[in-house]
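writing this on my phone so excuse typos. first protein, seq and then structure
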Amino acid sequence: MSQLFDLTGKTAVAIGGNGVLGSAMAKGLAEHGAKVAIVGRNLEKAEEVVNEIIKNGGEAKAFRADVSSEDALMHLADEIDKWTGGCDILLNAPGTNSSTPFFELGMDEYDRIMEINLKGIVLACQVFAKRMIERGRNGSIINISSVSSTTPLSRVFTYSVSKAGLNSVTQFLAREFAPHGIRVNAIIPGFFPAEQNRKILDKDRIENIMRHTPMNRFGEAEELQGATVWLASEKASSFVTGALIRVDGGFGSMTI
């Protein structure tokens, strides 16, 4: 059974792997044998994650890249090729948020959030999936969505729009890439203590979240590792593509 989740010999590229959730998922991939590229704008944070992985017996390397720049992603892909020969697993976990009210929202802020949360993932899929196809190797792309992607949450207009778009991208590319042996899925996390949502978690909002979360607690970042490793494994999830997997403590099942 353990062989189902063995990622030995695979290279995972974790974009946003220096964040709270991205780093936890990247560590899970490393613990199951994958070599992991930790990618982020902040190289110092990426190197901290790499050091933790190496300390626990894994193999990883830090890379700096701006996910909204095609040139930066092309350069990143070249560096990954030199390091391990290419990407097998692409974990798209970049993210930024804002609680700016709709009528106060400027287009500069809107564009910045959309560039990171949506455009950046589209570019990453273009760059890395194309190389997977050219090499004739199967692959897994895992996009990190949000509960706000299906039923928009208050206070996070642009974030919700970007994540709804990401779900559509995930399902479109699942169909597009299936003939090439590349699976594309998304994880929909519930409320986790990530940096981008702490600033809008006041007392009233926390109470509202708990009323809509049957498990009555926040998630721990490590609780995303199981779904990540499962979707990354060619053996364990070989017939899974175009799926939107909820890891949300039941949030998506609640109405009143």
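second protein below, same order as before
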Amino acid sequence: MRLALLLILATLAGVVTVLGFAPYRIYWIMPLSLAILANTLSRGGKHAFWLGYAWGLSSYLCNFNWIFISLHDVAGMPAWLAVPLTVLLPAYLALYPGLAAWMTIRIGDKCGAGAAERWLLLFPAAWTLMEWLRGWMLSGFPWGQVGYSQITESPLAGYAPVGGILLVTLLVALSAGGLQLAVSSGKWRRACLAAGLIALWGGGLALKPIAWTTPVGKPITVALAQGNVPQSLKWNPISFESTLRLYGQQIAETRADLMILPETALPALLSELPPNYIQILQSLANHNGMAVAAGVPRRSDSNPNGYLNSVVALTTPGMPYYAKNHLVPFGEFVPLPILTGWLYQWMNMPLSGFSRGGDQQAPLALAGQQIAFNVCYEDSFGEELIGPAAHSTMLANVSNLAWFGKSTAASQHLQLAQARALETGRFMLRSTNTGMTAIIRPDGAVDAIAAPFTRQVLLGFAEGRTGLTPFMRYGNLPVLLAGVLMLFAPLIRLRRRAPSERPRYRDHL
């Protein structure tokens, strides 16, 4: 009965995390949720893995329920198959909080760690290292890391340019560990913990106003197209011509220095568009004195049979392009086709075999700016954007979120983009098919945003930036090293103790 109650408590703590992320953004929910999980671990350490797993499964099911919409409502997969596949990703991801909980208790018991070591060293370190690992394993899925819940309203967001979202994640877990430690501490220790938390969160607040990069050049006017083409019509031959007319009309009616069209806005391979269509778009853009980049799939230069999810600079001589490199498993390439290829007979998913664009791609020169593009969920990977951002003055993301209907996915994706702007100290321009099309400032604040599920062109201003934030200089390495040191500090202390003073692990099972 006691275990059942603890599992229920851990599950409920996971459920409420949905309120920590966009669109709700109640940032204090996340450290409180992790503190509740830590409390269940202190009461049921023998079952640490399952308590952490229950937290992760409920959290990821609630936050990623839009997977069902993508598979069933949009791709047309039958419910009997879509439901288990929807559960599969959260069931896998939940292994990581389960392992973090298990490491916290196992290492703590093995070295006889005190409460302070367990909750201020082991718990935040194990949690952070596991969050990093799930963002890397099997091509990675960092969406939903607890640090994103702090962007941009929380004081802890001030640490993002210093150590990236992984540092913010570490500090959220550290705050949760401090709250758990305070529950079982006396007045003096509680006062010290309160002072430490105030200093930690106050430090983030003090960092927020710092501008880590400097303006370069003149501000430009930008126009971000939002076509609002339903996924059911996007690749339908019946609506093909109307889609092309839509974007042609938006270009003709727009006056700006730079205009960006969303991911696969032009729903055909570049070489298979109607004759002279690109020339018509170029003529319209040149008449308005406007540089235009558009999401359009194209053939690979190195592989005639391959095709790329690309952004093409239509108005630049030679039409240079950026091609998506970090592809989505199942959505853009088929992992282990012998084992998983049969799934596609149940889904309407055109162009599911993209090729990678390559790691070393130069920014696109547009409207006097060097713009580093990324496509769809590539902006989930902060460290991968460091190189492109260092050689650019702006970032831009093109996405097609029609795959996820009217779910929270678009709002969550906007929060990821805000984190990237913060980490790099650069404007992030987002052009999406259905929302959230937005202009994001270098401090992560949304400067302008288009109403979702509307057809419009968002107009605003953006300014080039130069310079490197601390995160761009060092990446995740300092946080990972700190996590490893925190994790092994109690073990190092144990080795220095006399053998007679060392705890026997079996005494703590």
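The chain is about 45% helix and 15% strand. thats all i got for now
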